[in-house]
Amino acid sequence: MQQSTTANGHPQGKRRGWKALLQYIVAAVISRGADAGAGVGLVLLASSNQHLAHPQLTGALLAAALTAPHVLGPLTARILDRAHDQRRVLAAASLLYGLFVLLTACTLGQIPLFCSIVLAACAGLCGPLLTGGLSSVLSRLVDEDEQHQRRAESWDALTYGMSGTLGPAAVAVIATVFSPLLALILLSISVIVAVVLILWLPLQMRTSHTEETVVSEHGVLHILLHTGQLRRAIVVMMAAAFPGGAISVIAVAFASEQLGNSAGGGWLVAAFGLGNLAGSLLLTLFPLRGEPERNMLLYTALVAVTFGICALAAQTYLALLLALAVAGAANAPFFAATLGVRSNYAPDHVRGQVFTGMAGFKIASSSAGTALAGLLTGLGAPLLLLAGGMIVGAAYVYAVLDRKGASRLARS
User: Fold this and answer.
1) What is the DSSP letter of 12?
2) Measured between alpha carbons, how far is 45 from 54 in angstroms, rounded to an integer?
């Protein structure tokens, strides 16, 4: 599996280019689809289990146990940054994720709930390597010129959109037609395909980083906060993720108010997801050009504007449906641009930790947005969506001013 490499660390040979990218895309969609679908599957499984005293609470706890460890991504990513062959670490993470989800599903209700939560949390610890960990190696699979790098990042953004849509959808369909347990079993088995594809990615062997070069978690945080581009990326990512996490809660409350039932909220959330998917597909045809941070700031402003549009549209159901599709589409180039910033400015020896750490901050912000929206639904969708747009707008202003301040310091 070892590939010859160029002096700059990129793989040589026929498999470099679109074949390697295609292999990466399939592996990423499968592994990330499992990550996205497992939470839904565990909630459905708990809800259908007659032996559980509190099925809804159990499902929520299992889903939280699966998601919460993503915040600890830099801890698991240290293994990736130290590895001589990063493919083995990524493949092991995919395999262990599937195994722990399978164990959680098959033993739910037969072992103490605490043990089931621990099993789900063990799967969650592997999750960051399936998201940020995989993204951190993408740049070494394609040519170094800007066009190829931006196109690869656009495809990577698409894998997040596809997996976030297809994973839960596949679980929901299989659970409805057959059973939630079968859905989770098939989901767990599917990662074997991802494992094989990851192991055969044409990534070069690296000189293993030592304890001195792979820095501590505090060292990574120092890098994130003192590298201007990464610091600004964290701020705008967290700002956009906060109202993004609130959308599902806002959508359900709005649908209940407008339609008299909460089921219509699912279509509002789906509109945002499908808009994001459409935007990501468009990016694969027309990848972003230019300096990644400039692109990030441009699309941060666009995301803020689209949340404002959603606030104005939250008068009728159809208007909000269309506005959320537009907001989802705007989120696609924004996310691709943040990937570009991470790829350009993450130091090589902590690359995995930077990618997973930033993803962890984003997930934490999204979860906080979901929780706060649940407490403030009484304020109504227009006000909550407007507040979300103002948060993103404030982050944009901060990032622009911070960038200008950094430029003045560099010139002085």
Assistant:
1) P
2) 12
Structure tokens at 263: 């089921």
First-residue to last-residue Cα distance in the chain? 50
How far apart are the C-alpha atoms of 90 and 108, rounded to whole Å?
27
Burial group, residue 401, by CB count within 10 angstroms (0-12, 13-18, 19+): exposed
| Calculated CA dihedral for residues 271, 277, 279, 282, nearest 10 degrees | -140
The pLDDT score that the predictor gives to residue 157 is 85
The band of 57, judged by pLDDT with boundaries at 50, 70 and 90, is confident
**Which of 234, 265, 230 is CA-nearest to residue 251?**
265
Distances (CA, A) of 377 to 190, 260, 322, 328, 369: 38, 16, 21, 21, 12
Buried b (16+ CB within 10 A) or exposed e, 328-364: bbbbbbbbbbbbbbbbebbeebbbbbbbbbbbbbbbb
pLDDT band (50, 70, 90) for residue 150: confident
pLDDT averaged over the chain?
A: 85
The candidate with the shortest Cα–Cα distance to 86, out of 26, 8, 140, 156, is 140
Residue 272 has which token pair?
């945002």
Cβ contact 262:256 at 8 Å: yes
Written as six digits, the tokens of 356 are 């997973």
Amino acid at 359: A
Round to whole Å and give the CA distance between 330 and 298: 11
328 vs 71 pLDDT, higher one: 328
How far apart are alpha carbons 348 and 218 in whole angstroms?
Answer: 17
Distances from the Cα of 331 to the Cα of 74, 208, 234, 299, 307, angstroms: 25, 36, 15, 8, 10
- Tokens linked to 24: 């990466």
pLDDT of res. 379: 92
